[in-house]
Structure formats: C-alpha cells, structure tokens
C-alpha cells in the first residue's frame, strides 16, 4: 500500500531480508496448521478404529490404523522440516543483526576518525599556546582591574609592613620604662640643704662616670 | 465459548424496548454498550451481522421472550461507533466489527507485547500474532484478522510498525 499511495520520501523500512524472513515464517505457520490438521485426523482415526473394533470389523480397523501410522510419519517429517525452517529463520535473523553490528562498528570507527582528524597535533599545540596566552592576558587584566601591584610594589609593601611591626615592638618597650620613671619620682631630700650642696658638687664630679655606667 | 454473566437488565423486559424518555434511554444505551462489548469480549467474536442478530442470545432473551428490534441494535451500534468501539464493514450497515478494545488500545497492547518479547525490528506473521505459540496468554490471541490488520494500521500510522504484504504473505515489522 505504501508503494502505491505513500509519498516517495517515505522510504519503506522493510528490507529484502525481512521479506525473506516473513516468507519463511509464513511457511512455518503453514506447516504448523498442517500439523494441527493431521493431529485432529489422527485423533479422529483412533476413535474410528476403536468403534470399528467394537463392532468387530477388525480388517477395517487395521486399515485405519495403517493410515494413522502413515500420517504419524508425515507429522514427524513435518516436525523436522519445521525445525529446518526455524533454524534458517534464526540464521537469517542473526545475519541481519550481524550486519547491523558491523554497520554500527563502521559508523563508530568513522566517527572516531573524524573526531581525531579535528584534533591534529599542530592544532592542539596551537590551541594550548593560545590558551596559555589567554590565561596570561587574563592575569594582566585582573591586575589592572583590581589595582594589583607589581613585584617591586609588593616588596615595598612588605618592607613597610616590617618597619611598622618593628616600630610597634619598639614603642611597646619604651612605654614600659616610662611607667617605671613615673614611679621613680625623686624623693624628698632628707639631709640638710648644705650637705646637699656639698653632695651635689660631688655628684657633679661623679655624674659623668655614672652616666657612662648607666649607659653601659 | 465462555459463558457470559448477564446483567440484571437482561432479564428485565423493558430493556428490550428502546425507552422514549431521554434520560432513561441514555442509561439503557449505556447498559447495552457494556453488554455488547462484554459479550464479544467473552466470546472473542468481532463480527456482528445485524440481520442475524436475533439468532444471537445477545439481543434476544428467549426465557422472557424479548428481542431488541433492529432499530435498537443499530442505535446501540451507532453509539458504539462514536467512541470507536464499533465500525460498519459495509455501506448497508449490516455487518459490523465490534472492538471491545478500541483500535488504539489494541495497537498499544500489541506494541507493548512486541516490546516485551523483543520482537521490535523483526518480522512477525499475522498468524503468529493471533494463533502462534508465543501469544497464547495475550489478550489479542485469537483476535479477528480484520481487527488485527486495522490495529496494525494504527501502529503503522504511528510509525511503530510496517505491514508487509505480498503474494499471500501477510506480516508486520515492528520498530
């Protein structure tokens, strides 16, 4: 029907093998029907033979049984033919599947070739180079946008950081000594001012010595 | 032929006269629809000839001596046709095909069997489908050839199958 009414672009998906398989199967169906028919006549014949025997017609019963035997032989022949048909059908179907498998392999192989053709070694190198360049450029852009610093700047920053840290530690130490100074206010003089004046003179002499000692 | 379980209406004489009151008639038709489909499902028959319908126990109940008139039968059948459950085979509307499953349902049933049995992409004969050894437990086993062929045409229009017929070979390839 498709061939007559169908549009030409609709291509039948039925192959020659399908038709052959169909014919084989059809033959098998016919054999099965034939077997059914023989089976039913066999059953009938047995029944007839029984009634004939009951009526005492032994000769006719024997004839019927002979016919039955013959048909049984036919049945077994049909069975073997059926087996042949089924075998052939399966072989054919399997051959079709095999061609499909090979087709699949071929298509896969072609696809792989094509995919590989796209990636030639030179091209890959080029692509990798370009990628690298791209990454570098991206880095530069990043630095520009986020105001990132050059190596030199980076060193400067570190140096400044160091100096701040040093200052802070230094500041922390003097603060401690200052506190001590506050506590050590000069005591109220306990001796007489005269004695003190005399002592001062002495002190003045020894002052230089003391300073050196302190400083050391 | 399996015995059908008759509904209570079947022994109810007014059931065999088309009722004048619209609402009653609708319900009566509904009951007839169910009965007709059920009858054909149980007996696995797809053909109905209106001219012989009265020999059929479906439309005539001898125990209460009632028969559904031909007009009534046609009314029921036309109602069935509306839902895709029946189809006339000739223009005189005497011979009908009864689908207790619609063709779409049959198509789906057959296709799901083909899928389950791994018959996709392979060829099956019509005989194999309705009388083969692999489908004895399927609902479409013993289905009328004409109905089968029409259901397969539905599948064909859905691009799920293609009917192959040449010489006297008839088969179908599932996809």
From TrEMBL, chain A:
One GO cellular component term noted in the UniProt record for this chain: multivesicular body
Pfam families assigned: Snf7
Region (Disordered), start-end ranges: 149-216
Annotated Basic residues bias: 201-210
Biased composition (Acidic residues): 176-194
Database matches in Gene3D superfamilies: 6.10.140.1230
Keywords: Endosome, Membrane, Protein transport, Transport
Location in or out of the cell: Endosome membrane
GO biological process: late endosome to vacuole transport via multivesicular body sorting pathway; protein transport; vesicle budding from membrane
Matches recorded under PANTHER family: CHARGED MULTIVESICULAR BODY PROTEIN, CHARGED MULTIVESICULAR BODY PROTEIN 6
Family note: Belongs to the SNF7 family.
Protein name stated in the entry: Charged multivesicular body protein 6
Gene: LOC117644446
UniProtKB/TrEMBL annotation, chain B:
InterPro entries: ESCRT-II_cplx_Vps25-sub, ESCRT-II_cplx_Vps25-sub_N, WH-like_DNA-bd_sf, WH_DNA-bd_sf
A Pfam family this chain is assigned to: ESCRT-II
Domain of life: Eukaryota
GO MF annotation list: protein homodimerization activity; structural molecule activity
GO cellular component, one term: ESCRT II complex
Keywords from the named record: Cytoplasm, Protein transport, Transport
UniProt family annotation: Belongs to the VPS25 family.
Protein name as it appears in the record: Vacuolar protein-sorting-associated protein 25
Organism of origin: Thrips palmi
Gene (UniProt): LOC117648525
């Amino acid at each position: 029907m498709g061939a007559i009414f169908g549009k030409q672009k609709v291509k039948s998906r039925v192959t020659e093998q399908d038709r052959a398989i169909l014919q084989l199967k059809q033959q098998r169906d016919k054999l099965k029907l034939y077997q059914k028919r023989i089976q039913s006549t066999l059953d009938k014949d047995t029944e007839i033979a029984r009634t004939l025997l009951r009526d005492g017609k032994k000769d006719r019963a024997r004839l019927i049984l002979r016919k039955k035997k013959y048909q049984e032989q036919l049945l077994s022949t049909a069975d073997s033919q059926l087996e042949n048909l089924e075998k052939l059908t399966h072989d054919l179907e399997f051959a079709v599947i095999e061609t499909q498998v090979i087709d699949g392999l071929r298509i896969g192989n072609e696809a792989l070739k094509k995919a590989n053709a796209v990636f030639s070694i030179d091209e890959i190198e080029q692509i990798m180079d370009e990628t690298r360049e791209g990454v570098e450029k991206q880095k530069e852009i990043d630095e520009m946008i986020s105001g990132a610093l050059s190596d030199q700047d980076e060193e400067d920053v570190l140096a400044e950081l160091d100096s701040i840290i040093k200052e802070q530690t230094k500041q922390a130490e003097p603060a401690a000594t200052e506190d001590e100074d506050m506590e050590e206010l000069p005591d109220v003089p306990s001796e007489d001012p005269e004695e003190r004046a005399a002592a001062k003179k002495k002190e003045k002499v020894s002052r230089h010595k003391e300073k050196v000692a302190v400083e050391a | 032929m399996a015995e059908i379980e008759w509904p209570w209406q079947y022994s109810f004489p007014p059931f065999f006269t088309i009722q004048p009151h619209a609402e009653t008639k609708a319900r009566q038709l509904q009951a007839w629809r169910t009965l007709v489909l059920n009858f054909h499902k149980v007996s696995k028959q797809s053909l109905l000839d209106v001219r012989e319908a009265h020999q059929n126990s479906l439309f005539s109940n001898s125990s209460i001596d009632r028969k559904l008139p031909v007009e009534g039968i046609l009314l029921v059948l036309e109602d069935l046709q509306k839902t895709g459950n029946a189809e006339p085979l000739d223009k005189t509307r005497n011979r009908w095909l009864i689908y207790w499953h619609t063709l779409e349902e049959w198509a789906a049933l057959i296709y799901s069997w083909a899928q389950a049995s791994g018959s996709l992409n392979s060829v099956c004969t019509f005989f194999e489908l309705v009388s083969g050894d692999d489908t004895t437990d399927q609902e479409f086993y013993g289905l009328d050839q004409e109905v089968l062929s029409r259901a397969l045409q539905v599948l064909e229009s859905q691009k799920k199958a293609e009917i192959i017929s040449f010489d006297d070979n008839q088969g179908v390839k599932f996809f």
